Amino acid sequence: MMLNRLFNKNRNYTFLPRILSTVLVLFGVSVINFFLFHLSPGDPTNQYFGPRMNKEQIEQKREQLGLNEPWYKQYAFWFSNFARGDFGYSWSKHRAVRGILNEAVPATLQLTLSALFVNFILGSIIGIFAGIWSHRLIGRFLNGITLLLYAIPSFWLALIFVLVFSLKLQWLPPSGMSSLFLDDSTILKQVMDRIRHLILPVAVLGLTGAAATSRYIRAHMMKLMSQSYIQQAMAKGLSKWQVTIRHAFRNALVPVVTLLGLYFPFLLGGALVVEVIFAWPGMGRVAYEAIMASDMPVIMAVNLIAAVMVVIGNFISDILYRYVDPRIQALS
């Protein structure tokens, strides 16, 4: 009994290095982004320039924005406010950054989580068939399609989708998050309208990610199907599909689950381009507009929130990795 309590107690201590590393990562991200902003060319006060502004007014504006202070004082002021939950005030939109993020973060999560679902489901299905039929024509065809999707840039695929499905066929809306004049409609109509606006951007992010996922699963399925325990399971009378799903596919998920935590930052990076093309009001579009306007409070807040999402994604992938591979639980 005492040994069990001691084991559980020591097991909880394994979270302390994870927490400390997370804090250090977020601190490092904030420092790097702060210095990158200060090393970038241009002056944030340029957007306030006008033909009637004199030098005294410009200096007064720099003092109002805190740009006349040394860099370490600027960083200490920003970090202390951020630690208290105060993200600052947008220099370009002239509103609180927290209000901007409250609107942008849910929109980005809808897009990225939906794309991650499409990535995993579609990539798993294609990877299974491409792996077990690797020597057939259909397996080679699936392998070629995934390789093509993996090589296509997301912005080019997004533009093609808009051209074909929105402008030519007029099946789906080309941009935005919802249609106009839907405030008085039913909840069902609003949900269906949101789904219609989600299809194209989710398809772009999900298909490019599913191509990479399917290639990983295909490679591991080809390797696992030739293992002795798979052949032994088939010799005992189990069907090929039972062996494929119960034994081979679950073992093939081990490296893929590890990659899911790494897919999330790639999805956030791809969402920046996709959100700009589809005019999706998420963090990517907010970051793009802030970069164009040299809006430091918004840039710093968006980058740090994205870093938090990446850390959470990696933590979830670790938990799923323990569920998929019970040997990790035995060693922990």
How does this structure look, described?
The chain is mainly alpha-helical and 332 residues long. It folds into two domains: 16-83; 103-331, MetI-like (MetI-like fold). Helices cover 77% and strands 0% of the residues. The protein contains 13 helices and no strands. The radius of gyration is 25 Å and the shape is globular. It starts with a helix and ends with a helix. Residues 1-13 have low confidence and may be disordered.
Say how many strands there are: 0
Measured on Cα atoms, how large is the radius of gyration? 25 Å
CATH evolutionary superfamily of the largest domain: MetI-like
Distance between the termini: 19 Å
Write the H/E string, N to C.
HHHHHHHHHHHHH
Main sheet attributes: strand count, strand direction, barrel closure = none
Overall pLDDT confidence: 77
Please name the CATH topology of the largest domain. Answer: MetI-like fold
